[in-house]
Amino acid sequence: LIESVSLFVLQKAVSEMAAWVKQHALYLSVNILPADLASARFRSKLLALLEHYELPPAAIMLEVVEVECQDLIALRQNVDAFRTLGFRIALDDFGKGCSNFERLLGVPVSDLKIDKCLTDNLFTPRRNLKGIIDCLYQLPVQLIFEGVEQPEQAKFIRKHYPNASMQGWYFSRALPPDAIAGLVRQDENNEGQPAIADSPFLNDTMAI
Question: What 3-state class would DSSP assign to 4?
Answer without folding.
Answer: helix
